[in-house]
Amino acid sequence: MATAEIKLQKPEFVNEPFVDFTKAENKAAMEAALKKVASEFGREYPMYIGGQEVKTAEKMKSTNPSHPSQVIGIVESASAEQARQAIESAHAYFDTWKRVPAEKRAGALFRAAEIIRQRKFEISALICCEVGKSWIEADADTAETIDFLEFYGREMLRLAGPHKVTPYQNERNFMVYIPLGAGAAIPPWNFPAAIATGMTAAALVAGNTVVLKPSEESPVIAAKMVEILYEAGIPKPALQFVTGLGEVAGDALVKHPKTRFIAFTGSKDVGLLISEAAGKRQPGQLWIKRAVLEMGGKDATIVDEEADVDAAVEGVALAAFGYQGQKCSACSRAIVSEKMYDTFVQKLVERAKKVTVGPAEDPGNYMGPVVSETALNGILNYIEVGKKEGKVVTGGGRAPGDGYFVQPTVIADVAPNARVAQEEIFGPVLAVIKARDFDHALEIANGTEFGLTGAVYSKNKAKLEKAEEVFHVGNLYLNRKCTGAMVGAHPFGGFNMSGTDSKTGGKDYLLHFLQAKSIAEKV
Ligand code: NAD
Predict the structure, then answer these.
(1) Residue 7 pLDDT greater than 70, yes or no
(2) Within 6 Å (CB) of ligand 1, which residues are found?
(3) Shortest CA distance to 254 belongs to which of 282, 215, 235?
(4) What's the pLDDT tens digit per position in 281-305?
(5) Is-contact 154 13, C-beta < 8 A?
(6) What residue owns the CA closest to ligand 1's atom 19?
(7) Which tens digit of pLDDT belongs to each residue from 48-60?
(8) Beta-strand (E) ranges in 372-491?
(9) pTM (predicted TM-score)
C-alpha cells in the first residue's frame, strides 16, 4: 500500500533543467561556488568500510588538470585486503538492506536528488576543478546525477511488489523482483558525478549493497556523492566507499567470491579484463557473477550530400570537441559524402578555429584541459600517428598554458581502417573520412569493433530510414549531434565492444540489479 501511495505522490519524471549561465545571478553563483570549492582544496577524504571511516598510510592526490599543481583533495589508497573487507561488509549487510521497503530506499534517492539540487553550483564547481569540465558540461553532469536519482527511484517503485503473470488453473501465481547481493560499482572519471552516482544508486535502490570504487582521477567528487547519499538516508554499511588503484582495489572487488555483480563503466580493455575475471568461479563462490559493462566507442557522424551542411558542421564540432572529446559518445569520425566533402571540411575547420581552449573555470573557454598528463601524452601520440595517416587541417598539438590543453584537431583524408579511425583516442581529435555514397558511409560507420553512438545528417527520409535499420549502434541520432543523451529520453548503452548495452537511464536498467522470482501457490 505504501508503494502505491508514494507512486501517487511522485509526479512523472522530467529532466532537471540546465542552468542558464547568461543570467547574472547564475554566473555570480558559479563564481562564488568556485571560490568555496577552492577553500576546501587539499582536504582529506576517508574511505568507509563496514560503516567506519578508514584511512591508509598510503595516500593518493587528486589534482586540477587546468592547474596541475593544485591539489583538489587527498584520498586513501586501499589495499586489496581492504577492498575484500569492504565487499565482505557489504555482503554481511545485504540481508538487512534487502528487507528495507522499496519506497524507503527510493525515498533516499529522492532526498539525495534534492540535496544535490540545493548544492548544484558547488558540485558543478568541483567537477570543473577536478576533471576540467566547462561550466556548461559540469552543470550537465550535475543535472544528469539528479536525473538518475529521480528516474531510478521511480523505476524501483514501478518494479516493487508482485507482478501479474498469466493466470493458471487452481493457482495463485505471480512474480517478484528481488535484489542480487553485494556488488562493486567501478565508474570512470568522465562523468564523475553522474555515472558514479547513477550506477551506485541503481544497485542500492534495487536492494543490493554496494562497494563504490571511483576512478583515480575523480575520487573527491565521488566522496562528496557518498556523503550526500549517507545524508539522504543510505546506511553506511549499505554503501562502502573504497578509493585506490583499479588494478589493486578494483581487481580485488571483481574477483572476490562474495561479489554478486559488477557495474563497470570504462575502457574496452579494462571491461574485457573484468568480464574474464568475473567469469571465473572462485573457491566458495555460489553464483555466476553478473557483469554490467559499459565501454568505449569510436562514434561516427555521417554527413550525406543531402544534409544541411551548417547543421552537420555544428553538430560534429560540438560532439567532437565538447568536454575535449572525452565522452564515450564523442564524435571521433566524420564520414562525409564525396560530393559534400570539400565544403564540409572547409566549414568545419573555420568552426574549429573558433573553439577557445584554456582553464575550465573560465567560462570564456569552450574547451578545458584533458584529464591528466597520461591522457595528454596518449592524445598527442595519436595526433602524431594521424599526421602520417591523413592531413591535419587544424590543430595538431598542445594549446598554451600549464594545464593539459590540446588544440581541437581535425585530421582529413583518413582511410576507414587507419588507426585514428579505428581506435578510441578519447580526446579532441576528429578523423574525417570520405565516402562514395550513403551505403558506403554506412559500411564505414559500422566498420569498427565498437557500436555506441552514431549520427546521420540528411534531408532524405529514405536514407534516414535505412540508417535506422543498418547503422549498428546503441544510440542513433538523426539530424542532431551524437552526444548529450538525456536520462529517460535516450536510454544509453552500446553494442559490440562498446559493452553489454545495459541502457542506463532507461526502463530496463534496474533489471540488471534484480532477479525475478516466480511464485505459484496451489489453491
Ligand atoms: P578505465 O577503464 O581506465 O577505468 C575505469 C574504472 O576501472 C576506474 O575506476 C579504474 O580505477 C577501474 N579499473 C582499472 N583497472 C581495473 C582493473 N584491473 N580491475 C578493476 N577495475 C579497474 O576508464 P576511464 O579512463 O576511467 O574512462 C574512460 C573510458 O570509459 C573510455 O573508454 C570511455 O569511452 C568509457 N566510457 C563509457 C561509457 C559508456 O556508457 N559506454 C560512459 C563513460 C565512459
Answers:
(1) no
(2) 186-191, 195, 214-216, 246-247, 250-251, 254, 265-267, 270, 273-274, 294-297, 328, 424, 426, 452, 492, 494, 498-499
(3) 282
(4) 999 999 999 999 999 999 999 999 9
(5) yes
(6) 251
(7) 999 999 999 999 9
(8) 391-394, 409-412, 429-435, 453-457, 475-478
(9) 0.97
